[in-house]
Amino acid sequence: MRSLSIASVAAFAGGTAVVAVQYGLGLVSAGYPPVVQALTCETDDADDAAEVALTAQEGALVPVVEFPQGSTVSCRIDAPGADYATWSILGPTATTRSGPLDAQQPCQTPDDFSAQDPSRLTLSACQRFVAQRPGLYLLSVTVMLRGLPAVDRVRLLARVVAPPTTAVEPRAIRQERVAISLRLREAEVEELRSTDLSASFGEHGLLPQSRTFQRTVLRLAPNEEFVSAAFRVRSASQASAVTLSYEPQSRSVTARYTLRAGSLVDRWRGWVTGTVEVKVRRRRMARDIPLPDTDLAVPGRTVLDLPQDTDIAGAQVLIHRVGSATVAEAVPGDAMTLDGIRILPTLTEDRLILDASVN
After folding, report:
1. Which value, in Å, is the radius of gyration of the alpha carbons in the chain?
2. Most buried in the list 22, 46, 282, 326, measured by CB within 10 Å?
3. Is 97 part of any domain?
4. Which DSSP string corresponds to 213-282?
């Protein structure tokens, strides 16, 4: 009995010593949080490369670099000791992505990252972006070491500059008042519906816990037919793959996934966040979409904003000269002639561009 008591006391003392050593090491390591040593950004054109060594702390001036519109920008973070990071971009377009950091991975594009399985999500130390729209962007990178309360952050202002346009002498320009509309013919079209999926699980017990969730993420309209569905991840930890399925009876798309949480001692939690993209097919009725009357610069370029959420797939452009019976029609990309004026229409997601010249 005496030997058993001595062994029990020794085991308790040993366990206490181990906990004390781990706590002491935690306090020591907490004094050395991950530090961002540099953020390097460069374009695919070596002549436009921009490298910024960021050592300024919060409150200091944020470096500003410029990139030409349309260029591919690759940014790499150097943060020894970090094992988790969040990249975010705010500006004319916004995006964010976060996950366990893997410095050995090649540079990731947004599609490379979002197409990953949430259960094996990794974030490269190098992220690639395309400077599509002109304007001022704020790039922010936050790094951390999981288990420690300290984080480090670095920020960079990037100005995307549009290419210079060739100036036209004012005396060579005249204005023609025109009425414009988009003609949509009856057709079967496919559309992409997007909805956010975000969930977390933080129930802690004596042992690590897990729970499987099933949620309806989208219901199809009566005139829509399901085609396919995919999940684009933005951030995940302790999560399984997200399985999407279509239920014909309820005409709904459901998401199924499992999240895990640590014990009362560890207290880590699981989460997943991303976008569910559902492709649907529907029958579109024929109709005309009138746009505001505008002054057409001849020669020159005229840009009109399209109404939000306009379905322009397969649309034709109709231009009517105000005060004249002349009407010209063409599909985007093909030129039309209107009273001796050659007009080339181009459609983007949110704009109609008319390039006019004299025949």
Report:
1. 29
2. 282
3. yes
4. EEEEEEE--TTEEEEEEEEEEEEEESB-PPEEEEETTTTEEEEEEEEEE--TTT---EEEEEEEEEEEEE
| Interatomic CA distance for residues 78 and 317, integer angstroms | 50
Q: Could you tell me the CA-to-CA distances from 250 to 197, 243, 246, 247, 257 in Å, in that order? A: 19, 18, 9, 6, 20
CA distance 135 to 156: 14
Record the pTM. 0.66
Residues in the chain: 359
- Examine the domain organization and report whether 144 and 177 are in the same domain: no
16: in domain: no
Residue 15 lies in a domain: no
Q: Which domain holds residue 320?
A: 170-186+287-358
Specify the 3-state DSSP secondary structure of 99: strand
Q: How many domains does the chain have?
A: 3
Instruction: Report d(CA 214, CA 240) in Å as an integer.
Output: 13
Answer whether 289's CB lies under 8 Å from 300's CB.
no
- Do residues 179 and 297 share a domain? yes
- Same domain for 76 and 118, yes or no, is yes
Q: Is the separation of the CB atoms in 71 and 114 below 8 Å?
A: no
Question: Averaged over 8-18, what is the pLDDT?
Answer: 50
Asked whether the beta carbons of 39 and 78 are under 8 A apart, the reply is yes
Peptide bond into 68 cis (omega under 30): no
Dump pLDDT digits (tens) for 139-168: 999 998 877 777 888 888 888 988 876 554
Do 178 and 305 fall into the same domain?
Answer: yes
* Tokens representing residue 90 in the block: 């705010």
How many CA atoms within 13 Å lie on the side-chain side of 143?
24
DSSP reduced 3-state for 102 = strand
Q: Is the distance from CB of 300 to CB of 346 less than 8 angstroms?
A: no
Q: Which residue has the higher pLDDT, 277 or 14?
A: 277
Are 136 and 94 within 8 A, CB to CB? no
The Cα–Cα gap between 359 and 176 comes to 15
Same domain, 43 and 141: yes
Per-residue burial over 212-226, b = 16 or more CB atoms within 10 Å of its CB, e = otherwise: eeeeebbebeeebeb
Over residues 16-36, the mean pLDDT reads 53
Structural domain contains residue 32: no
